[in-house]
Amino acid sequence: MGEGIRTDVPVFENQWQDLHRHAVEATKKAYAPYSDYPVGVAGLTQSGRILTGANIENASYGLTLCAECTLICQAIMLEADPLIAVVIVNASGEFITPCGRCRQLLIEHTGPRLQLTTAEGLTTLGQLLPQAFGPKNLAT
Fold it and tell me: GO CC annotation: what is one (predicted)?
């Protein structure tokens, strides 16, 4: 998925606002009875489609799925165009940054050019996860 990301597809302010709104809505579908910390994510595909995800917790904490996991699963299952932008929020609508596991998941399925918002502003996944390990590292 990640290799085909185009860098010439701009993400406009109104699209960032739509992503934020969809991510906040996604928090309402989260299953977070253990942490009481719903997380929602919305991703914009190259063709302009918006996909969402939410965290799904499990009593066996290690089996919990972060919101980004459910987003990537949806993108793969729907055979969606590559994701070019992502917004991740908590239930208050505040921007949050993906955990290390999710950075690794996102880098493999989107690539380092993925744009995302953080509390500090707009960044790329490559800036959050420099020198990432990926499939190319397994080739040898």
Answer: cytosol
